[in-house]
Amino acid sequence: MFILPRKALKLLAVALCAPALGMAQPAPVSASAPIKVAMIEGLSGPFGNTGEAVFRNLYWAMERVNARGGVKLAATATVPAGNHPLALERYDSKGQTEEALSALKSAIDDGARFIMQGNSSATAAALIDAINKHNEREPAKRVVFLNYAAVDPILTNEKCSFWHFRFDAHADMRMTALMTVLKEDKSLKSVYILGQDYSFGHAVAREAKRQLGLLRPDIQLVGEELHPMGRVKDFLPYATKIKASGAQAVITGNFGNDLTLLVKAAKEVGFEGKFYTFYGNALGAPAAIGDAGIGKVVAVADWLPNVQTASSDAFYQSFRQRFPKPADDYVHMRMQLMVESLAQAIEKAGTTDSLAVATQLEKANVTFASQNGVMRASDHQFQQPLVVGVMDRQGAPGVKFDVEGSGYGFRVIKTIAAASAELPTTCKMQRPVQ
Asked: Count of domains in the chain?
Protein backbone atom coordinates (compact mmCIF):
# COMPACT_ATOMS: atom_id res chain seq x y z
CA MET A 1 0.00 0.00 0.00
CA PHE A 2 1.26 3.51 -0.76
CA ILE A 3 1.98 5.53 2.38
CA LEU A 4 2.37 9.17 1.47
CA PRO A 5 3.69 11.84 3.79
CA ARG A 6 1.30 14.61 2.81
CA LYS A 7 -2.24 14.99 4.05
CA ALA A 8 -3.26 17.55 1.46
CA LEU A 9 -6.11 16.52 -0.77
CA LYS A 10 -4.29 17.08 -4.01
CA LEU A 11 -1.17 15.07 -4.67
CA LEU A 12 1.16 15.05 -7.62
CA ALA A 13 0.17 13.98 -11.11
CA VAL A 14 0.96 10.55 -12.49
CA ALA A 15 3.82 11.82 -14.60
CA LEU A 16 5.46 13.43 -11.56
CA CYS A 17 4.60 11.38 -8.49
CA ALA A 18 6.43 8.13 -9.23
CA PRO A 19 9.63 8.96 -7.34
CA ALA A 20 7.69 9.96 -4.21
CA LEU A 21 5.95 6.60 -4.27
CA GLY A 22 9.10 4.59 -4.82
CA MET A 23 7.82 3.58 -8.26
CA ALA A 24 9.61 3.31 -11.56
CA GLN A 25 9.39 6.50 -13.57
CA PRO A 26 6.84 6.14 -16.40
CA ALA A 27 8.18 6.25 -19.93
CA PRO A 28 8.44 9.87 -21.08
CA VAL A 29 5.74 11.27 -23.30
CA SER A 30 5.91 14.75 -24.76
CA ALA A 31 6.14 18.07 -23.02
CA SER A 32 2.51 18.72 -23.98
CA ALA A 33 0.14 19.81 -21.26
CA PRO A 34 -1.12 16.90 -19.14
CA ILE A 35 -4.80 15.97 -19.12
CA LYS A 36 -5.81 16.16 -15.48
CA VAL A 37 -7.93 13.35 -14.04
CA ALA A 38 -9.12 13.62 -10.43
CA MET A 39 -9.63 10.56 -8.26
CA ILE A 40 -11.93 11.39 -5.33
CA GLU A 41 -11.81 8.52 -2.87
CA GLY A 42 -11.47 7.55 0.77
CA LEU A 43 -7.71 7.23 1.16
CA SER A 44 -7.80 7.36 4.95
CA GLY A 45 -10.19 5.96 7.51
CA PRO A 46 -11.71 2.45 7.71
CA PHE A 47 -11.74 1.90 3.94
CA GLY A 48 -8.41 3.51 3.13
CA ASN A 49 -7.05 0.19 1.86
CA THR A 50 -9.79 0.02 -0.78
CA GLY A 51 -9.00 3.58 -1.88
CA GLU A 52 -5.32 2.76 -2.23
CA ALA A 53 -6.20 -0.35 -4.26
CA VAL A 54 -8.14 1.89 -6.63
CA PHE A 55 -5.23 4.28 -6.90
CA ARG A 56 -2.83 1.48 -7.86
CA ASN A 57 -5.17 0.30 -10.60
CA LEU A 58 -5.80 3.76 -12.06
CA TYR A 59 -2.15 4.74 -11.80
CA TRP A 60 -1.07 1.58 -13.59
CA ALA A 61 -3.67 2.01 -16.34
CA MET A 62 -2.66 5.62 -16.98
CA GLU A 63 1.00 4.73 -16.80
CA ARG A 64 0.36 2.25 -19.61
CA VAL A 65 -1.41 4.89 -21.74
CA ASN A 66 1.44 7.33 -21.14
CA ALA A 67 4.10 4.72 -21.95
CA ARG A 68 2.67 4.29 -25.43
CA GLY A 69 2.72 8.04 -26.06
CA GLY A 70 -0.23 9.41 -24.12
CA VAL A 71 -3.38 10.75 -25.70
CA LYS A 72 -2.88 12.15 -29.18
CA LEU A 73 -4.62 15.45 -29.91
CA ALA A 74 -4.55 18.05 -32.60
CA ALA A 75 -4.26 21.70 -31.55
CA THR A 76 -7.40 23.34 -30.15
CA ALA A 77 -8.14 26.71 -28.59
CA THR A 78 -7.30 25.37 -25.15
CA VAL A 79 -4.91 22.44 -25.76
CA PRO A 80 -1.78 22.43 -27.93
CA ALA A 81 -1.15 19.66 -30.44
CA GLY A 82 0.85 16.68 -29.31
CA ASN A 83 0.84 13.60 -27.17
CA HIS A 84 -0.69 14.49 -23.82
CA PRO A 85 -0.07 12.38 -20.70
CA LEU A 86 -2.95 11.49 -18.42
CA ALA A 87 -2.20 13.00 -15.00
CA LEU A 88 -3.90 11.39 -12.00
CA GLU A 89 -4.46 13.60 -8.97
CA ARG A 90 -5.59 12.19 -5.63
CA TYR A 91 -8.24 13.81 -3.44
CA ASP A 92 -8.95 12.17 -0.09
CA SER A 93 -12.66 12.20 0.77
CA LYS A 94 -11.88 10.42 4.06
CA GLY A 95 -14.91 8.25 3.31
CA GLN A 96 -17.26 11.20 3.86
CA THR A 97 -19.71 12.59 1.32
CA GLU A 98 -19.25 16.21 2.39
CA GLU A 99 -15.49 15.84 2.04
CA ALA A 100 -16.02 14.36 -1.44
CA LEU A 101 -18.12 17.36 -2.48
CA SER A 102 -15.44 19.70 -1.20
CA ALA A 103 -12.83 17.68 -3.10
CA LEU A 104 -14.92 17.95 -6.26
CA LYS A 105 -14.81 21.74 -6.02
CA SER A 106 -11.06 21.66 -5.45
CA ALA A 107 -10.53 19.33 -8.40
CA ILE A 108 -12.53 21.56 -10.72
CA ASP A 109 -10.67 24.65 -9.47
CA ASP A 110 -7.41 22.78 -10.14
CA GLY A 111 -8.42 22.25 -13.76
CA ALA A 112 -9.61 18.63 -13.74
CA ARG A 113 -12.42 17.93 -16.17
CA PHE A 114 -12.59 14.17 -15.62
CA ILE A 115 -13.62 12.91 -12.19
CA MET A 116 -13.28 9.30 -11.00
CA GLN A 117 -14.94 7.84 -7.88
CA GLY A 118 -16.65 4.64 -6.87
CA ASN A 119 -16.24 3.25 -3.35
CA SER A 120 -19.57 4.62 -2.09
CA SER A 121 -22.88 4.75 -3.90
CA ALA A 122 -24.16 7.46 -1.54
CA THR A 123 -21.17 9.61 -2.41
CA ALA A 124 -21.60 8.88 -6.12
CA ALA A 125 -25.24 10.01 -5.96
CA ALA A 126 -24.21 13.27 -4.30
CA LEU A 127 -21.46 13.82 -6.87
CA ILE A 128 -23.91 13.25 -9.73
CA ASP A 129 -26.24 15.92 -8.32
CA ALA A 130 -23.38 18.36 -7.76
CA ILE A 131 -21.90 17.78 -11.21
CA ASN A 132 -25.28 18.21 -12.90
CA LYS A 133 -25.72 21.59 -11.18
CA HIS A 134 -22.15 22.67 -11.82
CA ASN A 135 -22.27 21.76 -15.51
CA GLU A 136 -25.48 23.70 -16.00
CA ARG A 137 -24.15 26.69 -14.11
CA GLU A 138 -20.66 26.77 -15.66
CA PRO A 139 -20.74 25.24 -19.15
CA ALA A 140 -17.15 26.37 -19.81
CA LYS A 141 -15.93 24.19 -16.94
CA ARG A 142 -18.13 21.11 -17.36
CA VAL A 143 -16.82 17.82 -16.02
CA VAL A 144 -17.43 14.12 -16.75
CA PHE A 145 -17.86 11.57 -13.96
CA LEU A 146 -16.42 8.06 -14.49
CA ASN A 147 -17.65 5.61 -11.84
CA TYR A 148 -15.70 2.38 -11.28
CA ALA A 149 -17.46 0.83 -8.28
CA ALA A 150 -20.58 2.63 -7.02
CA VAL A 151 -23.16 0.01 -7.94
CA ASP A 152 -26.51 1.15 -6.56
CA PRO A 153 -28.81 0.49 -9.57
CA ILE A 154 -30.50 3.87 -9.11
CA LEU A 155 -27.42 5.64 -10.49
CA THR A 156 -28.15 4.46 -14.04
CA ASN A 157 -31.90 4.34 -13.58
CA GLU A 158 -33.81 7.13 -11.82
CA LYS A 159 -30.68 9.21 -11.19
CA CYS A 160 -29.06 8.61 -14.57
CA SER A 161 -27.13 11.58 -15.92
CA PHE A 162 -25.52 12.38 -19.25
CA TRP A 163 -22.37 13.32 -17.35
CA HIS A 164 -22.10 10.04 -15.40
CA PHE A 165 -20.70 6.76 -16.78
CA ARG A 166 -20.61 3.55 -14.74
CA PHE A 167 -17.99 0.93 -15.61
CA ASP A 168 -18.91 -1.65 -12.97
CA ALA A 169 -21.91 -3.98 -13.16
CA HIS A 170 -24.59 -2.61 -10.85
CA ALA A 171 -25.87 -4.50 -7.81
CA ASP A 172 -28.83 -6.12 -9.55
CA MET A 173 -26.56 -7.40 -12.33
CA ARG A 174 -24.08 -8.78 -9.80
CA MET A 175 -26.87 -10.39 -7.78
CA THR A 176 -28.30 -12.00 -10.91
CA ALA A 177 -24.88 -13.50 -11.64
CA LEU A 178 -24.55 -14.82 -8.07
CA MET A 179 -28.01 -16.33 -8.27
CA THR A 180 -27.03 -18.40 -11.31
CA VAL A 181 -24.87 -20.36 -8.84
CA LEU A 182 -26.99 -20.13 -5.70
CA LYS A 183 -30.16 -21.35 -7.39
CA GLU A 184 -28.40 -24.57 -8.44
CA ASP A 185 -27.41 -25.44 -4.86
CA LYS A 186 -30.30 -27.80 -4.12
CA SER A 187 -29.03 -28.53 -0.61
CA LEU A 188 -29.40 -24.87 0.39
CA LYS A 189 -32.56 -24.31 2.43
CA SER A 190 -31.86 -21.21 4.58
CA VAL A 191 -30.00 -17.92 4.13
CA TYR A 192 -29.15 -14.83 6.16
CA ILE A 193 -28.77 -11.40 4.51
CA LEU A 194 -26.25 -9.06 6.13
CA GLY A 195 -25.11 -5.76 4.72
CA GLN A 196 -23.99 -2.19 5.23
CA ASP A 197 -26.67 0.32 6.18
CA TYR A 198 -26.55 2.70 3.25
CA SER A 199 -27.98 2.87 -0.26
CA PHE A 200 -25.89 0.05 -1.72
CA GLY A 201 -26.51 -2.30 1.21
CA HIS A 202 -30.24 -1.67 0.94
CA ALA A 203 -30.14 -2.36 -2.81
CA VAL A 204 -28.33 -5.67 -2.28
CA ALA A 205 -30.79 -6.82 0.40
CA ARG A 206 -33.81 -5.79 -1.66
CA GLU A 207 -32.65 -7.57 -4.80
CA ALA A 208 -31.52 -10.69 -2.92
CA LYS A 209 -35.00 -11.10 -1.44
CA ARG A 210 -36.68 -10.44 -4.78
CA GLN A 211 -34.58 -12.97 -6.67
CA LEU A 212 -34.79 -15.59 -3.93
CA GLY A 213 -38.57 -15.31 -4.12
CA LEU A 214 -38.54 -15.80 -7.87
CA LEU A 215 -35.81 -18.43 -8.25
CA ARG A 216 -35.77 -20.33 -4.96
CA PRO A 217 -39.00 -19.77 -3.03
CA ASP A 218 -38.19 -22.93 -1.08
CA ILE A 219 -35.26 -21.18 0.64
CA GLN A 220 -36.13 -19.68 4.01
CA LEU A 221 -34.83 -16.22 4.93
CA VAL A 222 -33.83 -16.78 8.57
CA GLY A 223 -32.38 -13.35 9.22
CA GLU A 224 -31.79 -9.93 7.71
CA GLU A 225 -29.71 -7.15 9.22
CA LEU A 226 -27.95 -3.97 8.16
CA HIS A 227 -25.10 -2.58 10.24
CA PRO A 228 -23.37 0.83 10.36
CA MET A 229 -20.89 1.14 7.52
CA GLY A 230 -17.24 1.20 8.54
CA ARG A 231 -17.97 1.59 12.25
CA VAL A 232 -18.32 -1.98 13.53
CA LYS A 233 -15.09 -3.19 15.12
CA ASP A 234 -16.42 -6.48 16.45
CA PHE A 235 -18.64 -8.65 14.24
CA LEU A 236 -18.87 -11.48 16.78
CA PRO A 237 -22.45 -10.52 17.82
CA TYR A 238 -23.53 -10.61 14.17
CA ALA A 239 -21.73 -13.90 13.52
CA THR A 240 -23.27 -15.42 16.63
CA LYS A 241 -26.76 -14.48 15.43
CA ILE A 242 -26.04 -15.90 11.99
CA LYS A 243 -24.93 -19.21 13.44
CA ALA A 244 -27.86 -19.34 15.88
CA SER A 245 -30.33 -18.71 13.04
CA GLY A 246 -29.38 -22.01 11.42
CA ALA A 247 -28.50 -20.24 8.16
CA GLN A 248 -26.65 -22.38 5.65
CA ALA A 249 -25.41 -19.32 3.74
CA VAL A 250 -24.89 -15.58 4.09
CA ILE A 251 -25.55 -13.16 1.24
CA THR A 252 -23.56 -9.94 1.66
CA GLY A 253 -22.39 -6.97 -0.32
CA ASN A 254 -19.90 -6.00 2.39
CA PHE A 255 -16.47 -4.86 1.25
CA GLY A 256 -13.17 -3.86 2.82
CA ASN A 257 -12.82 -4.24 6.58
CA ASP A 258 -16.57 -4.78 6.95
CA LEU A 259 -16.18 -8.03 5.04
CA THR A 260 -12.83 -9.11 6.46
CA LEU A 261 -13.98 -8.65 10.06
CA LEU A 262 -17.26 -10.45 9.29
CA VAL A 263 -15.59 -13.57 7.89
CA LYS A 264 -13.05 -13.58 10.74
CA ALA A 265 -15.89 -13.50 13.26
CA ALA A 266 -17.78 -16.23 11.41
CA LYS A 267 -14.72 -18.43 11.58
CA GLU A 268 -14.32 -17.75 15.31
CA VAL A 269 -17.88 -18.82 16.14
CA GLY A 270 -17.61 -21.92 13.97
CA PHE A 271 -20.08 -20.92 11.25
CA GLU A 272 -19.75 -23.58 8.55
CA GLY A 273 -22.09 -22.17 5.92
CA LYS A 274 -21.35 -20.47 2.62
CA PHE A 275 -20.78 -16.81 1.86
CA TYR A 276 -22.25 -15.43 -1.37
CA THR A 277 -20.36 -12.18 -1.78
CA PHE A 278 -19.79 -9.25 -4.10
CA TYR A 279 -16.21 -8.69 -2.90
CA GLY A 280 -15.04 -11.81 -1.07
CA ASN A 281 -12.12 -12.44 -3.39
CA ALA A 282 -9.54 -10.10 -1.83
CA LEU A 283 -8.66 -7.37 0.69
CA GLY A 284 -7.88 -9.88 3.40
CA ALA A 285 -11.05 -11.98 3.27
CA PRO A 286 -9.52 -15.24 1.88
CA ALA A 287 -6.63 -15.18 4.37
CA ALA A 288 -9.02 -14.35 7.22
CA ILE A 289 -11.23 -17.37 6.71
CA GLY A 290 -8.50 -19.81 5.58
CA ASP A 291 -9.35 -23.45 4.91
CA ALA A 292 -12.86 -22.90 6.25
CA GLY A 293 -13.63 -20.94 3.08
CA ILE A 294 -12.64 -23.63 0.60
CA GLY A 295 -15.68 -24.37 -1.51
CA LYS A 296 -17.75 -22.00 0.66
CA VAL A 297 -16.81 -18.42 -0.26
CA VAL A 298 -18.35 -17.43 -3.58
CA ALA A 299 -17.59 -14.11 -5.28
CA VAL A 300 -18.89 -12.35 -8.38
CA ALA A 301 -16.69 -10.01 -10.42
CA ASP A 302 -16.17 -8.59 -13.87
CA TRP A 303 -12.95 -10.63 -14.00
CA LEU A 304 -10.90 -12.96 -11.81
CA PRO A 305 -7.20 -13.88 -12.12
CA ASN A 306 -8.06 -17.52 -12.81
CA VAL A 307 -10.23 -17.06 -15.90
CA GLN A 308 -7.41 -19.00 -17.58
CA THR A 309 -6.69 -17.41 -20.91
CA ALA A 310 -3.19 -16.60 -22.08
CA SER A 311 -3.82 -12.87 -22.34
CA SER A 312 -5.51 -12.76 -18.93
CA ASP A 313 -2.61 -14.63 -17.34
CA ALA A 314 -0.14 -12.21 -18.88
CA PHE A 315 -2.20 -9.24 -17.68
CA TYR A 316 -2.33 -10.51 -14.12
CA GLN A 317 1.33 -11.45 -14.02
CA SER A 318 2.29 -8.00 -15.29
CA PHE A 319 0.29 -6.44 -12.45
CA ARG A 320 2.04 -8.65 -9.90
CA GLN A 321 5.40 -7.65 -11.35
CA ARG A 322 4.44 -3.97 -11.17
CA PHE A 323 3.16 -4.26 -7.59
CA PRO A 324 4.99 -7.23 -6.04
CA LYS A 325 3.92 -6.73 -2.43
CA PRO A 326 1.24 -9.32 -1.52
CA ALA A 327 -0.85 -6.66 0.24
CA ASP A 328 -1.07 -4.69 -3.02
CA ASP A 329 -2.61 -7.58 -4.94
CA TYR A 330 -6.09 -6.37 -5.86
CA VAL A 331 -6.41 -5.75 -9.58
CA HIS A 332 -9.58 -4.58 -11.32
CA MET A 333 -10.00 -5.26 -15.03
CA ARG A 334 -12.91 -2.80 -15.27
CA MET A 335 -10.67 0.08 -14.19
CA GLN A 336 -8.27 -0.75 -16.99
CA LEU A 337 -11.17 -0.73 -19.46
CA MET A 338 -12.41 2.56 -18.00
CA VAL A 339 -9.09 4.34 -18.51
CA GLU A 340 -8.77 2.86 -22.00
CA SER A 341 -12.30 4.10 -22.75
CA LEU A 342 -11.42 7.60 -21.58
CA ALA A 343 -8.24 7.72 -23.67
CA GLN A 344 -10.16 6.40 -26.68
CA ALA A 345 -12.96 8.95 -26.23
CA ILE A 346 -10.59 11.92 -25.92
CA GLU A 347 -8.70 10.91 -29.06
CA LYS A 348 -11.91 10.35 -31.03
CA ALA A 349 -13.32 13.67 -29.83
CA GLY A 350 -10.07 15.37 -30.83
CA THR A 351 -10.42 17.60 -27.80
CA THR A 352 -10.69 17.54 -24.02
CA ASP A 353 -14.00 19.40 -24.16
CA SER A 354 -16.25 17.58 -21.71
CA LEU A 355 -19.33 17.50 -23.91
CA ALA A 356 -17.40 16.14 -26.89
CA VAL A 357 -15.66 13.50 -24.76
CA ALA A 358 -18.92 12.43 -23.09
CA THR A 359 -20.52 12.06 -26.50
CA GLN A 360 -17.71 9.70 -27.51
CA LEU A 361 -17.84 7.81 -24.18
CA GLU A 362 -21.43 6.91 -25.02
CA LYS A 363 -19.97 4.90 -27.93
CA ALA A 364 -17.08 3.30 -26.01
CA ASN A 365 -16.20 -0.18 -27.20
CA VAL A 366 -12.91 -1.40 -25.77
CA THR A 367 -11.01 -4.65 -25.56
CA PHE A 368 -8.07 -5.28 -23.27
CA ALA A 369 -6.49 -8.61 -22.28
CA SER A 370 -9.35 -10.36 -24.14
CA GLN A 371 -11.96 -8.60 -21.97
CA ASN A 372 -14.43 -6.53 -23.95
CA GLY A 373 -16.87 -3.91 -22.75
CA VAL A 374 -19.38 -1.64 -24.47
CA MET A 375 -21.05 1.46 -23.05
CA ARG A 376 -24.86 1.44 -23.35
CA ALA A 377 -25.81 4.94 -24.47
CA SER A 378 -29.35 4.82 -23.09
CA ASP A 379 -28.21 4.88 -19.44
CA HIS A 380 -24.38 4.93 -19.51
CA GLN A 381 -24.16 1.47 -17.94
CA PHE A 382 -21.11 -0.44 -19.18
CA GLN A 383 -21.95 -3.91 -20.49
CA GLN A 384 -19.33 -6.63 -19.96
CA PRO A 385 -19.07 -10.31 -19.08
CA LEU A 386 -19.24 -11.36 -15.42
CA VAL A 387 -17.72 -14.35 -13.68
CA VAL A 388 -18.47 -16.19 -10.45
CA GLY A 389 -15.68 -17.92 -8.58
CA VAL A 390 -15.38 -20.16 -5.53
CA MET A 391 -12.46 -20.14 -3.12
CA ASP A 392 -9.93 -22.96 -3.20
CA ARG A 393 -6.27 -23.63 -2.47
CA GLN A 394 -3.72 -22.41 -4.95
CA GLY A 395 -2.66 -25.35 -7.08
CA ALA A 396 -6.07 -26.99 -7.11
CA PRO A 397 -7.53 -27.51 -10.60
CA GLY A 398 -8.40 -24.11 -12.06
CA VAL A 399 -6.54 -22.16 -9.35
CA LYS A 400 -3.23 -21.16 -10.87
CA PHE A 401 -3.04 -17.90 -8.93
CA ASP A 402 -3.72 -17.12 -5.29
CA VAL A 403 -4.59 -13.65 -3.99
CA GLU A 404 -2.51 -11.47 -1.67
CA GLY A 405 -0.05 -14.28 -1.07
CA SER A 406 -2.71 -16.06 0.99
CA GLY A 407 -2.34 -19.44 -0.69
CA TYR A 408 -6.01 -19.25 -1.71
CA GLY A 409 -7.51 -18.24 -5.02
CA PHE A 410 -10.85 -18.36 -6.81
CA ARG A 411 -11.76 -20.98 -9.39
CA VAL A 412 -14.17 -19.69 -12.02
CA ILE A 413 -17.34 -21.77 -11.90
CA LYS A 414 -19.65 -19.63 -14.01
CA THR A 415 -19.12 -17.19 -16.86
CA ILE A 416 -21.99 -14.90 -17.82
CA ALA A 417 -21.80 -13.31 -21.25
CA ALA A 418 -22.39 -9.58 -21.49
CA ALA A 419 -25.69 -10.12 -23.29
CA SER A 420 -26.89 -12.39 -20.47
CA ALA A 421 -25.68 -10.03 -17.73
CA GLU A 422 -27.50 -7.06 -19.26
CA LEU A 423 -30.64 -5.81 -17.48
CA PRO A 424 -33.24 -3.25 -18.62
CA THR A 425 -33.09 0.36 -17.47
CA THR A 426 -35.69 2.94 -16.46
CA CYS A 427 -33.34 5.84 -17.32
CA LYS A 428 -34.85 8.84 -19.09
CA MET A 429 -31.63 10.45 -20.26
CA GLN A 430 -31.63 14.21 -20.58
CA ARG A 431 -28.90 15.20 -23.01
CA PRO A 432 -27.53 18.75 -23.20
CA VAL A 433 -28.17 20.82 -26.27
CA GLN A 434 -25.23 20.45 -28.64
From this structure: 2
